[in-house]
Amino acid sequence: MRKGALQNGANPMLVRCAKGFAQAMPPKGALQYRGLLLALGFLLAAVGLAFGAVKAKNRADATGSMTIYLETSLSEQDLHALRKRENSMEFTAWGERLDVTVADPDLGRRIQTEVLVLDGSSELVLPLAPVLAAGDTGGCLLGEETAWELFGSTQVTGEKVLIGNEPRVVRGVVGFPQHGVMLGGNVKGITGTETSTDKEFQYYNRITVEGGKVSDAEEFLMMNGLDGEVLRLDYLRSLHWITELVPGKWSDFSGWKNNITKKKEDFGLISRISKNSVELYYERQCRLYMWDTVMEAVCILGIVCICFKFKKRKILSG
What we know:
- By secondary structure, the protein is of the alpha+beta class.
- The protein has helices at residues 3-7, 12-24, 28-63, 76-84, 144-151, 214-224, 253-272, 277-317; strands spanning 67-74, 91-103, 110-119, 139-143, 160-163, 166-174, 181-184, 204-209, 228-231.
Protein backbone atom coordinates (compact mmCIF):
# COMPACT_ATOMS: atom_id res chain seq x y z
CA MET A 1 0.00 0.00 0.00
CA ARG A 2 1.25 3.52 -0.74
CA LYS A 3 1.45 6.28 1.86
CA GLY A 4 -1.31 8.05 -0.02
CA ALA A 5 -3.63 5.26 1.00
CA LEU A 6 -3.01 6.00 4.67
CA GLN A 7 -3.54 9.69 4.13
CA ASN A 8 -6.89 8.96 2.50
CA GLY A 9 -8.10 7.26 5.65
CA ALA A 10 -7.15 3.59 5.01
CA ASN A 11 -7.36 1.35 8.06
CA PRO A 12 -3.81 0.63 9.33
CA MET A 13 -4.87 -2.88 10.39
CA LEU A 14 -6.04 -3.68 6.86
CA VAL A 15 -2.81 -2.32 5.47
CA ARG A 16 -0.73 -4.63 7.69
CA CYS A 17 -2.93 -7.62 6.75
CA ALA A 18 -2.51 -6.87 3.06
CA LYS A 19 1.27 -6.65 3.43
CA GLY A 20 1.40 -9.93 5.36
CA PHE A 21 -0.73 -11.70 2.75
CA ALA A 22 1.46 -10.40 -0.06
CA GLN A 23 4.59 -11.63 1.71
CA ALA A 24 3.01 -15.07 2.35
CA MET A 25 2.12 -15.57 -1.32
CA PRO A 26 4.65 -17.79 -3.12
CA PRO A 27 6.50 -16.24 -6.02
CA LYS A 28 5.19 -16.67 -9.54
CA GLY A 29 7.78 -19.35 -10.37
CA ALA A 30 6.71 -21.44 -7.36
CA LEU A 31 3.07 -21.31 -8.46
CA GLN A 32 4.01 -22.52 -11.91
CA TYR A 33 6.12 -25.30 -10.42
CA ARG A 34 3.23 -26.48 -8.25
CA GLY A 35 0.89 -26.34 -11.24
CA LEU A 36 3.25 -28.47 -13.30
CA LEU A 37 3.52 -31.03 -10.48
CA LEU A 38 -0.28 -31.14 -10.20
CA ALA A 39 -0.63 -31.60 -13.97
CA LEU A 40 1.96 -34.38 -13.90
CA GLY A 41 0.05 -36.08 -11.08
CA PHE A 42 -3.17 -35.89 -13.10
CA LEU A 43 -1.35 -37.30 -16.14
CA LEU A 44 0.07 -40.27 -14.24
CA ALA A 45 -3.32 -40.95 -12.66
CA ALA A 46 -5.02 -40.80 -16.08
CA VAL A 47 -2.51 -43.30 -17.51
CA GLY A 48 -3.01 -45.68 -14.58
CA LEU A 49 -6.78 -45.42 -14.85
CA ALA A 50 -6.61 -46.03 -18.60
CA PHE A 51 -4.68 -49.26 -18.03
CA GLY A 52 -7.18 -50.24 -15.34
CA ALA A 53 -10.10 -49.60 -17.69
CA VAL A 54 -8.53 -51.73 -20.44
CA LYS A 55 -7.85 -54.53 -17.96
CA ALA A 56 -11.42 -54.48 -16.64
CA LYS A 57 -12.80 -54.41 -20.20
CA ASN A 58 -10.72 -57.42 -21.21
CA ARG A 59 -11.87 -59.33 -18.14
CA ALA A 60 -15.48 -58.46 -18.91
CA ASP A 61 -14.99 -59.68 -22.49
CA ALA A 62 -13.79 -63.00 -21.08
CA THR A 63 -17.15 -63.62 -19.41
CA GLY A 64 -19.60 -61.41 -21.27
CA SER A 65 -21.95 -63.15 -23.71
CA MET A 66 -25.54 -62.39 -24.66
CA THR A 67 -27.55 -64.59 -22.31
CA ILE A 68 -31.19 -65.59 -22.00
CA TYR A 69 -32.64 -65.71 -18.49
CA LEU A 70 -35.28 -68.43 -18.13
CA GLU A 71 -38.14 -67.88 -15.71
CA THR A 72 -38.72 -71.65 -15.68
CA SER A 73 -35.61 -73.83 -15.46
CA LEU A 74 -35.12 -76.66 -17.95
CA SER A 75 -34.13 -80.27 -17.44
CA GLU A 76 -31.72 -82.32 -19.53
CA GLN A 77 -34.71 -83.90 -21.27
CA ASP A 78 -36.05 -80.46 -22.20
CA LEU A 79 -32.70 -79.49 -23.69
CA HIS A 80 -32.47 -82.76 -25.64
CA ALA A 81 -35.87 -81.99 -27.18
CA LEU A 82 -34.75 -78.46 -28.11
CA ARG A 83 -31.66 -79.75 -29.90
CA LYS A 84 -33.72 -82.21 -31.96
CA ARG A 85 -35.85 -79.46 -33.50
CA GLU A 86 -35.22 -78.43 -37.09
CA ASN A 87 -33.23 -75.25 -37.71
CA SER A 88 -32.27 -75.15 -34.05
CA MET A 89 -29.48 -72.67 -33.28
CA GLU A 90 -26.32 -73.77 -31.54
CA PHE A 91 -26.62 -72.95 -27.85
CA THR A 92 -25.25 -73.75 -24.41
CA ALA A 93 -27.61 -74.07 -21.47
CA TRP A 94 -26.15 -73.57 -18.05
CA GLY A 95 -26.93 -73.15 -14.39
CA GLU A 96 -25.12 -73.04 -11.08
CA ARG A 97 -25.13 -75.16 -7.95
CA LEU A 98 -23.73 -73.62 -4.77
CA ASP A 99 -21.68 -75.08 -1.92
CA VAL A 100 -20.64 -78.27 -3.70
CA THR A 101 -17.76 -80.24 -2.18
CA VAL A 102 -14.76 -80.45 -4.52
CA ALA A 103 -11.78 -82.57 -3.46
CA ASP A 104 -8.32 -83.62 -4.54
CA PRO A 105 -8.54 -87.42 -4.06
CA ASP A 106 -4.75 -87.78 -3.72
CA LEU A 107 -3.96 -85.00 -1.26
CA GLY A 108 -7.33 -85.15 0.50
CA ARG A 109 -7.94 -81.39 0.28
CA ARG A 110 -11.62 -80.38 0.22
CA ILE A 111 -13.32 -77.06 -0.45
CA GLN A 112 -16.88 -75.84 -0.84
CA THR A 113 -17.43 -73.89 -4.03
CA GLU A 114 -19.93 -73.16 -6.81
CA VAL A 115 -20.24 -75.49 -9.78
CA LEU A 116 -21.28 -74.19 -13.18
CA VAL A 117 -23.15 -76.96 -15.01
CA LEU A 118 -23.04 -76.74 -18.81
CA ASP A 119 -25.06 -78.46 -21.50
CA GLY A 120 -23.10 -77.55 -24.61
CA SER A 121 -19.69 -76.06 -25.29
CA SER A 122 -18.17 -73.80 -22.64
CA GLU A 123 -16.85 -71.55 -25.42
CA LEU A 124 -20.17 -69.74 -25.77
CA VAL A 125 -20.27 -68.86 -22.06
CA LEU A 126 -16.54 -68.22 -21.50
CA PRO A 127 -15.21 -67.28 -24.97
CA LEU A 128 -11.61 -66.56 -23.90
CA ALA A 129 -11.14 -69.57 -21.58
CA PRO A 130 -9.94 -73.11 -22.33
CA VAL A 131 -12.74 -74.98 -24.07
CA LEU A 132 -14.71 -77.78 -22.44
CA ALA A 133 -16.29 -79.51 -25.44
CA ALA A 134 -19.98 -80.32 -25.61
CA GLY A 135 -20.61 -83.86 -24.44
CA ASP A 136 -17.39 -84.10 -22.43
CA THR A 137 -18.65 -86.22 -19.53
CA GLY A 138 -15.26 -86.83 -17.98
CA GLY A 139 -13.67 -83.39 -17.86
CA CYS A 140 -14.00 -80.09 -16.05
CA LEU A 141 -12.45 -76.62 -15.82
CA LEU A 142 -11.19 -75.04 -12.61
CA GLY A 143 -10.96 -71.39 -11.68
CA GLU A 144 -7.43 -70.19 -10.85
CA GLU A 145 -8.14 -69.63 -7.15
CA THR A 146 -9.89 -72.99 -6.88
CA ALA A 147 -6.88 -74.71 -8.47
CA TRP A 148 -4.57 -73.01 -5.95
CA GLU A 149 -6.77 -74.04 -3.03
CA LEU A 150 -6.84 -77.68 -4.13
CA PHE A 151 -3.37 -78.22 -5.61
CA GLY A 152 -1.25 -75.20 -4.71
CA SER A 153 -0.67 -74.54 -8.41
CA THR A 154 -2.43 -73.58 -11.63
CA GLN A 155 -0.50 -76.15 -13.68
CA VAL A 156 -3.08 -78.84 -13.01
CA THR A 157 -4.30 -79.92 -16.46
CA GLY A 158 -4.73 -83.70 -16.37
CA GLU A 159 -5.14 -83.87 -12.58
CA LYS A 160 -8.14 -85.66 -11.08
CA VAL A 161 -10.75 -84.07 -8.85
CA LEU A 162 -13.84 -85.38 -7.11
CA ILE A 163 -16.89 -83.13 -7.50
CA GLY A 164 -19.48 -84.43 -5.08
CA ASN A 165 -19.38 -88.12 -5.98
CA GLU A 166 -18.39 -87.40 -9.60
CA PRO A 167 -14.74 -88.03 -10.61
CA ARG A 168 -13.46 -85.64 -13.28
CA VAL A 169 -10.21 -84.83 -15.07
CA VAL A 170 -9.11 -81.18 -15.23
CA ARG A 171 -9.07 -80.02 -18.87
CA GLY A 172 -7.81 -76.51 -18.13
CA VAL A 173 -7.72 -73.55 -15.74
CA VAL A 174 -9.96 -70.50 -16.16
CA GLY A 175 -8.53 -67.08 -15.37
CA PHE A 176 -11.90 -65.32 -15.12
CA PRO A 177 -13.91 -66.00 -13.03
CA GLN A 178 -11.25 -67.24 -10.64
CA HIS A 179 -13.44 -69.34 -8.37
CA GLY A 180 -15.52 -72.42 -9.01
CA VAL A 181 -15.72 -75.45 -11.27
CA MET A 182 -17.26 -75.82 -14.74
CA LEU A 183 -18.43 -79.19 -16.00
CA GLY A 184 -20.92 -80.85 -18.33
CA GLY A 185 -22.43 -84.24 -19.06
CA ASN A 186 -24.15 -86.40 -16.47
CA VAL A 187 -24.10 -84.33 -13.30
CA LYS A 188 -26.32 -86.34 -10.96
CA GLY A 189 -23.26 -87.41 -9.03
CA ILE A 190 -22.57 -83.90 -7.76
CA THR A 191 -25.70 -84.07 -5.58
CA GLY A 192 -24.34 -87.03 -3.66
CA THR A 193 -27.06 -89.43 -4.77
CA GLU A 194 -27.91 -91.33 -7.91
CA THR A 195 -31.57 -91.85 -6.98
CA SER A 196 -32.80 -88.27 -7.30
CA THR A 197 -35.70 -87.56 -9.64
CA ASP A 198 -35.25 -85.68 -12.88
CA LYS A 199 -37.34 -82.81 -11.46
CA GLU A 200 -34.52 -82.03 -9.03
CA PHE A 201 -32.14 -81.42 -11.92
CA GLN A 202 -34.10 -78.65 -13.60
CA TYR A 203 -31.48 -76.00 -12.85
CA TYR A 204 -30.57 -74.91 -16.39
CA ASN A 205 -31.86 -71.34 -16.13
CA ARG A 206 -29.50 -69.61 -18.59
CA ILE A 207 -29.04 -70.11 -22.33
CA THR A 208 -26.29 -68.53 -24.43
CA VAL A 209 -26.95 -68.64 -28.18
CA GLU A 210 -24.29 -68.72 -30.86
CA GLY A 211 -23.91 -65.34 -32.54
CA GLY A 212 -24.00 -63.17 -29.44
CA LYS A 213 -26.56 -60.69 -30.79
CA VAL A 214 -29.76 -59.55 -29.09
CA SER A 215 -31.74 -60.45 -32.23
CA ASP A 216 -30.35 -64.02 -32.14
CA ALA A 217 -31.41 -64.48 -28.53
CA GLU A 218 -34.87 -63.03 -29.15
CA GLU A 219 -35.33 -65.24 -32.21
CA PHE A 220 -34.32 -68.30 -30.17
CA LEU A 221 -36.94 -67.47 -27.53
CA MET A 222 -39.71 -67.05 -30.12
CA MET A 223 -38.76 -70.15 -32.12
CA ASN A 224 -38.87 -72.40 -29.06
CA GLY A 225 -41.69 -70.74 -27.09
CA LEU A 226 -39.59 -70.43 -23.93
CA ASP A 227 -40.58 -68.38 -20.91
CA GLY A 228 -37.61 -66.05 -20.61
CA GLU A 229 -36.00 -62.70 -21.41
CA VAL A 230 -32.71 -61.50 -22.84
CA LEU A 231 -30.47 -60.46 -19.96
CA ARG A 232 -28.95 -57.14 -21.07
CA LEU A 233 -25.92 -57.04 -18.79
CA ASP A 234 -24.13 -55.18 -21.60
CA TYR A 235 -25.98 -52.07 -20.39
CA LEU A 236 -23.60 -52.01 -17.41
CA ARG A 237 -20.46 -51.35 -19.44
CA SER A 238 -21.48 -48.39 -21.59
CA LEU A 239 -24.23 -45.88 -22.30
CA HIS A 240 -24.93 -47.17 -25.81
CA TRP A 241 -28.39 -48.27 -24.62
CA ILE A 242 -29.42 -44.60 -24.76
CA THR A 243 -29.30 -44.78 -28.57
CA GLU A 244 -31.81 -47.65 -28.42
CA LEU A 245 -34.37 -45.25 -26.96
CA VAL A 246 -34.63 -43.44 -30.29
CA PRO A 247 -37.51 -44.79 -32.44
CA GLY A 248 -37.46 -45.03 -36.21
CA LYS A 249 -38.90 -41.51 -36.42
CA TRP A 250 -38.21 -38.75 -33.90
CA SER A 251 -41.85 -37.73 -34.03
CA ASP A 252 -43.05 -41.24 -33.07
CA PHE A 253 -44.07 -40.48 -29.49
CA SER A 254 -45.52 -43.96 -28.90
CA GLY A 255 -42.18 -45.40 -30.05
CA TRP A 256 -40.33 -43.29 -27.46
CA LYS A 257 -42.73 -44.48 -24.75
CA ASN A 258 -42.41 -48.16 -25.72
CA ASN A 259 -38.60 -47.98 -25.85
CA ILE A 260 -38.39 -46.29 -22.45
CA THR A 261 -40.73 -48.91 -20.97
CA LYS A 262 -38.60 -51.71 -22.46
CA LYS A 263 -35.41 -50.26 -20.98
CA LYS A 264 -37.05 -49.99 -17.56
CA GLU A 265 -37.99 -53.68 -17.82
CA ASP A 266 -34.45 -54.62 -18.87
CA PHE A 267 -32.86 -52.77 -15.95
CA GLY A 268 -35.53 -54.19 -13.62
CA LEU A 269 -34.57 -57.73 -14.68
CA ILE A 270 -30.88 -57.02 -14.02
CA SER A 271 -31.65 -55.81 -10.49
CA ARG A 272 -34.18 -58.48 -9.45
CA ILE A 273 -32.59 -61.75 -10.57
CA SER A 274 -30.22 -63.77 -8.42
CA LYS A 275 -26.97 -63.57 -10.39
CA ASN A 276 -24.59 -66.49 -10.65
CA SER A 277 -20.81 -66.25 -10.21
CA VAL A 278 -20.12 -65.52 -13.89
CA GLU A 279 -22.65 -62.67 -14.00
CA LEU A 280 -21.46 -61.20 -10.70
CA TYR A 281 -17.88 -61.20 -11.97
CA TYR A 282 -18.96 -59.56 -15.24
CA GLU A 283 -20.98 -56.92 -13.37
CA ARG A 284 -18.04 -56.12 -11.10
CA GLN A 285 -15.65 -55.70 -14.04
CA CYS A 286 -18.15 -53.48 -15.88
CA ARG A 287 -18.44 -51.21 -12.85
CA LEU A 288 -14.65 -51.02 -12.56
CA TYR A 289 -14.41 -50.19 -16.25
CA MET A 290 -16.99 -47.40 -15.98
CA TRP A 291 -15.42 -45.99 -12.80
CA ASP A 292 -11.89 -45.96 -14.26
CA THR A 293 -13.16 -44.39 -17.49
CA VAL A 294 -15.01 -41.60 -15.66
CA MET A 295 -12.08 -40.86 -13.34
CA GLU A 296 -9.70 -40.85 -16.32
CA ALA A 297 -11.89 -38.18 -17.92
CA VAL A 298 -11.81 -36.17 -14.66
CA CYS A 299 -7.99 -36.28 -14.64
CA ILE A 300 -7.81 -35.15 -18.27
CA LEU A 301 -10.20 -32.30 -17.45
CA GLY A 302 -7.92 -31.29 -14.58
CA ILE A 303 -4.93 -31.15 -16.94
CA VAL A 304 -6.90 -29.01 -19.39
CA CYS A 305 -7.92 -26.60 -16.62
CA ILE A 306 -4.31 -26.22 -15.45
CA CYS A 307 -3.09 -25.57 -19.00
CA PHE A 308 -5.86 -23.02 -19.54
CA LYS A 309 -4.94 -21.27 -16.28
CA PHE A 310 -1.27 -21.05 -17.28
CA LYS A 311 -2.20 -19.69 -20.71
CA LYS A 312 -4.51 -17.10 -19.18
CA ARG A 313 -1.79 -15.90 -16.78
CA LYS A 314 0.69 -15.65 -19.63
CA ILE A 315 -1.72 -13.50 -21.65
CA LEU A 316 -2.45 -11.23 -18.66
CA SER A 317 1.24 -10.83 -17.77
CA GLY A 318 2.15 -10.21 -21.39
